[in-house]
Amino acid sequence: MNKKYIIAAAFLILGAVNQSCSNDFIEVSPTEAIPESNLEIYNNNEGATSFVTAIYAKFLDWDMSVFAWIGVTSIVSDDADKGSSPGDTGSDKDILDALNFTPTTPSFKELFTSNYQGINRANQALKYLPLLDKADPELRKRLTGEAKFLRAFMYFTLVRSFGGVPLVDHVPVSGVEEDRIMTLTRKTKEEIYAFIEKDLKDAIEMLPEKSAYSGNNIGRASVGAAHALLAKVYLYQKKWQLAVDESNKVTGYSLTPNFQDIYKVSGENNAESIFEINGTGGTAGRAIQQYSQVQGARGTTGWGWGFATPTQGLYDAYSATDTRRDATIIHRDMTLYDGYYVGPNTENKFYNYKAYSSDYRSAPSTDVNIRYLRYAEVLLIRAEAMNELGQTAAAIPFLNEVRNRANIGDTPAVSQADVRADIWKQRRLELAFEHDRWFDLVRTGQAKAAMTADGGKNFIVGKHELFPLPQDFIMEAGGLSAQNPGY
């Protein structure tokens, strides 16, 4: 293998370093194999941008953002059942739903490897951007900030899922022993969080305001996104004051008056949106692969596979006046916002409305975006952190902003404990199917009770707080990394 090749594709962490040359790398679009001698053709603004665009492109992939991700964030939680037909397991979605997963459950390998593939694209960008001296310096600075934000985002997914993981902070070189050890050795959870914080602080110094982007650049990471993600990272570590401080720096955003409008095409990247993954519909588009189709209504008057169906418990958690309920959950005998009628005979009672595409309802390539950071969540982060600091009275107005948009009025809670409970509940109702519920249950200590209430599922304290590392990785590590407890 010619070692002068730059592969702006994903380093496959499972065994890639010391395998044969044919297995060293997986080549994926949009940037594949680039001879180092030809790096000069990328030494311009377009070439520099392509390195970072390749990172965003990874978030459109099936293994990164679709079936496995839906399984390990929604189906595993009390917000969603497996759905679909009883006999369709969805590979392992029945196992996830029942909390019977093991290190060989396929979704965890997809979660693990896809994020490291994205991280390697970020590492490629960070390695080569400094060499592109004919590209605009301010553009390269911004692109470096974007790459660091996205790398932090992916490590946040990994640390919430698995705890400590390998810290791959540069492009591994095949045959270099230190790099082999790097890719196979777990760092502590604390070390991963420190790395995430450093990347986000660096990104904050490099990224522009959201308003600086236009045209094809809409949706790229901004300084507001970096502050918001850092606030969330601090929240997960119970660094309450730092979470407040960062949330206060997220400025220039506002709540969308009508909740359902957020999830229409017209609501993409709107004034509430801080960061979302952008997909475009049609055969020529670059969609989040089958994200809508997998979660679409199944059967008569349906259009999709019917997986990740909202639970009765989630539906019942909304009050009848809560405008979020019928904007989050499709039910039988319902007319959707575009006039489409979902009849009374779909296979499942409920479906995820936030994944619905009006223009590309049954197409695998749809125009649905995944909303990952919204201003409503920043308000809830600020409220939660302030309440934990004992500033309950000052926290309540931020909670009430979210509640009032949902048409449920001010919180009746007054005490710190009651306000805490309401904040946690509003996070569930506000962010349902935005891939946070499972992690929220774990970080707040609600998981055992919530899963018991969800059909008597057995959440094992001391085990299920973390997912198992993929068995293939543990075997490849050869003692350099140990499995999570209980697996």
Based on Cα principal axes, name the global outline: globular
Compute the gyration radius: what is it?
22 Å
Sequence of strands across the biggest β-sheet: 1-4
Average residue pLDDT: 92
Low-confidence runs (pLDDT<50, min 5 residues)?
A: 1-33
Task: Label the structural class.
Answer: mainly alpha
Q: Helix content range of the residues, please?
A: 40-55%
Major sheet:
2 strands, antiparallel
Treating each run of at least 4 consecutive H or I residues as one helix, how many helices? Answer: 19
| E-strand count | 12
Distance linking N and C termini? 38 Å
Strand content: 5-15%
Please give the structural blueprint.
Elements: E1 5-7, E2 10-11, E3 25-26, E4 33-35, H1 45-58, H2 62-65, H3 67-75, E5 80-83, H4 93-97, H5 106-128, H6 137-162, H7 177-184, H8 189-206, H9 223-236, H10 240-248, E6 273-277, H11 291-295, E7 307-310, H12 312-317, H13 325-328, E8 329-331, E9 334-335, E10 341-342, E11 350-352, E12 370-374, H14 375-388, H15 392-405, H16 416-431, H17 437-443, H18 447-453, H19 471-477
Antiparallel strand pairs: 1-4, 2-3, 5-7, 6-12, 8-11, 9-10
Helix pairs in contact: 1-5, 1-6, 3-5, 5-6, 6-8, 8-9, 9-10, 9-14, 10-14, 14-15, 14-16, 15-16
Structural features, described:
The chain is mostly helical and 487 residues long. Helix 14 packs antiparallel against helix 15 (392-405). It is built from 19 helices and 12 strands.
